[in-house]
Amino acid sequence: MIPRSRLHRLYRLSRAPLRRRTKKGFTLLEILLVLGILGVLAAIVLIAVNPTKQLGDARSAHRTSSVREIENAMVQYIIDGNDLPGIPAVKAQARDICRDTITGLACTDAPVSGYDLDVLTPTYIVNIPIDPDETDTNITGYRIYQQGSFVKICSVREEDDCGA
Question: Residue 100 in contact with residue 128, Cβ under 8 Å?
Fold first, then answer.
């Protein structure tokens, strides 16, 4: 008969290879599963946030703010007893507003044929705002027209009927 202490030692030795076979860490399947779940969550977040729409909304808000800023500067200019002659009386004939750097005949004559608001700067407005998507170096992307006794500004990219 084998002594009890020896039996216990043999039993422990026979179990040792089983313990060595188990390794700590993640399997490839587990890692791929976690990456798949993270990918699905990232896609859901991108769809919910929709960065293209957010950027479009921000640009639209910028345009609205710029239109109000120009209109307020014109109102202040007119309140001070000044006049803005030559503004088209129909929205369909609205004229492009020139940038600060294009003034006088360079603004009003061809090829620009715009409307010069440099009389507003810097007293009534620091500079004439420019549309975020405007690529033409001569114009701002906004147009001016008169509606009754009110001088109005419209954005070409926001309103389809803003001039020709």
Answer: yes
Asked if residues 127 and 121 have their Cβ atoms less than 8 Å apart, the reply is yes
| Residue 51 near residue 109, CB atoms below 8 Å | no
Rounded mean pLDDT for each run of 10 residues along the chain, 164 residues in total: 62 56 81 94 86 84 88 89 85 86 82 85 88 86 87 84 69
Distance of alpha carbon 164 from alpha carbon 159, whole angstroms: 11
Instruction: Please name the helix (run of DSSP H) or strand (run of DSSP E) that holds residue 33, with its range, or none.
Output: helix 28-49
- Residues 162 and 164: their CA atoms lie apart, in Å, by 7
Which candidate, 160, 144, 147, places its Cα nearest to that of 67?
144
Q: Residue 58's Cα: distance from chain center in Å?
A: 5
